[in-house]
């Protein structure tokens, strides 16, 4: 049970601080942190919780990561559904607290006719810079695939795992620096679902893509590492 609680809180932290940085601080007049700041915030959530609870649950905080680790032979299939439920629950509760905080600001309302509503992900007219569904899918697929290659590589029994949490967090920073203009960056179905639920409308209608593309990319990354990169025991 401790591992599921760890996944709940780890995913909560990722959504609350990552999406919170986008909602509260990214566009703050003159002092806003912008894309670079949001990218760093997401990376720091993973670094901090990887070292805080990674030893308890493995520090997935992402359904795509759990499925990618399963494809790479590092995670038991019987734990997949409980992990994904815990991750989605943590993300949704975090989004609820973000909504509660934002509702305390005069004039607050979610405009779900615009890209990035409530830090949601999207494609087409709901992509921050108008990228098509194909562009969005390819971006999410490739970035999640490499995310899994990095996770599997840095946590390999032959790697220096002391710095794995830092490398994985920095990878997420880099992922956001590339893809915020394209999809507002998902690579995490739980993060996408939580924001889409509160945004509603078209962001919720498009959330399927931010499950399919990251999961497909993660499974591909897990398969590639296991088949071609992993050092086999002599």
TrEMBL record:
Keywords: Cell membrane, Membrane, Transmembrane, Transmembrane helix, Transport
InterPro entries: Aquaporin-like (IPR023271), Aquaporin_transptr (IPR034294), MIP (IPR000425), MIP_CS (IPR022357)
Principal location class: membrane
Topological category with respect to the lipid bilayer: Multi-pass membrane protein
Cell compartment(s), UniProt: Cell membrane
Gene3D superfamilies attached to this UniProt entry: Glycerol uptake facilitator protein (1.20.1080.10)
Family per record: Belongs to the MIP/aquaporin (TC 1.A.8) family.
Protein name in UniProt: Aquaporin Z
């Amino acid at each position: 049970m401790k591992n599921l609680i760890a996944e709940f809180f780890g995913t909560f932290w990722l959504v609350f601080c990552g999406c919170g940085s986008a909602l509260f601080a990214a566009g703050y007049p003159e002092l806003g942190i912008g894309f670079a700041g949001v990218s760093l915030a997401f990376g720091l959530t993973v670094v901090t919780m990887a070292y805080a609870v990674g030893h308890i649950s493995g520090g997935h905080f992402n359904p795509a990561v759990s499925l990618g680790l399963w494809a790479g032979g590092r995670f038991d299939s019987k734990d997949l559904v409980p992990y994904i439920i815990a991750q989605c629950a943590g993300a949704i509760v975090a989004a609820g607290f973000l909504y509660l905080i934002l509702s305390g600001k005069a004039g607050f309302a979610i405009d779900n006719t615009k890209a990035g509503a409530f830090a949601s992900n999207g494609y087409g007219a709901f992509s921050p810079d108008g990228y098509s569904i194909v562009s969005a899918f390819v971006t999410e697929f490739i970035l999640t695939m490499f995310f899994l290659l990095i996770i599997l590589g840095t946590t390999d029994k032959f790697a220096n795992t002391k710095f794995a949490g830092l490398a994985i967090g920095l990878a997420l920073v880099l992922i956001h620096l590339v893809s915020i203009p394209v999809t507002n960056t998902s690579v995490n179905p739980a993060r996408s679902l939580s924001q889409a639920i509160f945004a509603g409308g078209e962001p919720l209608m498009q959330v399927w893509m931010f499950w399919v593309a990251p999961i497909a990319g993660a499974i591909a990354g897990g398969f590639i590492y296991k088949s071609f990169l992993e050092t086999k025991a002599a």
